[in-house]
Write the structure tokens for this entry.
Amino acid sequence: RRTTSTVTMNGTGGGNTLSGNITGTSSFHNLTFSGVSGSWSFGGNASTTGNFTNDNGTVTLPTLLTIGGDYTNNAVITAGSGEVKFTAVDTGNTLTGTMTGSSAFASTTFLGSGGSWTFVNNATTTGNIEFSTSTNVTGTSSLTIWRNWTNNGTFLHSSGTVIFASSSASTTLR
């Protein structure tokens, strides 16, 4: 693993699996999926220390995906019931592309101490969303939350809208 490398998945067929140890010191730096009509899944948890990008094809996320930089989806990402953790400790990180419908997040956590992110496009989380201490998240569009909202950091709606869509009596806002 090199700290500035980008691994690009160019497969054009279905059934591609990324497996083995893809966390900790074996994390990708930047990971890009760009194979037209390709489909990928993960055999276990995975992480990047940099950006996660899906330009083409379909990616099924693992139970836990940790991202240390930007998130871009220009195709289809299926979250299932997994969690995406954003851990960047720098400012200026963005979440762009399709993040609604079949590409909605399941549960989302922003953890990077001193990190900041901006939702550039509309986004939905069908599970929980959490902003940890010392994180800054800005929403410049629509953010739809279906479960629990925990804000121990800073969330700025900017010119955006936050929609709490759950009809469950057990949903919490903190």
